[in-house]
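Side project, low priority. Logging it here so it doesn't get lost.
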Amino acid sequence: MSSDPGFRPHRVVVLALDGLLPFELGIPHRIFGRPKDARGRHLYEVVTCSVRPPGQVETDADFAVHVPHGPEALATADTVVIPASYELGPVFEQGVLTPELAAALARIRPGTRLASICTGVYVLAAAGYLDGRPATTHWAEAEHLQRLFPQVKVDANVLFIDDGDVLTSAGVAAGIDLCLHMVRRDHGTAVANEVARRTVVPPHRDGGQAQYIHRPVPDPQVAGTTTARAWALARLHEPIQLRDMAEQEAMSVRTFTRRFREETGISPGQWLTQQRVERARHLLESTELSMDQVARDAGFGTAQSMRQHLQTALGVTPTAYRRTFRTGTGEAHRPGGVGIGVGH
């Protein structure tokens, strides 16, 4: 690893369960395996473990994977990620852990960050980690998850939910969104954006799952809202009214609002706020602009307005956010306990 005795990468342990989806198993390795600090040191160490001794774990494909670590690896984790599995058995059917899985999870140290991808959320719920807390999963399983675990606050409209020390994501590719979010939360927007570029994925996707739920195919002649979004992104620093965006698509405000929500899963106003928060984060991290200047350039108008929006979205003030991510070490961690659901 590093010759610096004071440096230790954040250890991510991925729990591979029988029936796992190979694509989802690979997401944490791809995303967390990329980030490095200014000295070229990997910021994360990613290992895969099973609930059994090292050996073969079956997948939902026509091949198995060899997992080199047993459940003891969970005791060494700073973050545990549980990808989806199609063979959860009593966890999925009855909401209870198998003795083998319960024993493995018991090894996790208190305070370890937990994350699930897609139906991996069932494991967290069955273990009681989500009692009274918000969570999400693939939209097709959300209703079943809510019935099985009524004590969980299931939200099927978001791509992921950050509830501080427990994070959950929607299906498959939303696992990429979640892992990028954790990198962004740990090390800032610039590091996460570089990982996204190398992975050839968007650093941040708009909207929630609503845009992916099956609906009747719309008339191909009907215009969308892409032009309006591009127009708005080019002038976030200016006041933008809903009617201004609707005019870019030659639509009435009512029609535009409906189409926008159909395409992104959120309202135009929520989308604008999200984009302005992201612009503010970038400026706070990458410039020495004053708070008033950042607020104006991000479209919030005043520093007080920006403070309120960042406090709501991120759980920290602009000053605290800049202090965390302008350290220059690449090793800063954002304060935990923040709940973020895309589309909220």
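Brief comment: Residues 239 and 299 are 7 Å apart (CA to CA).
Revisit when time allows.
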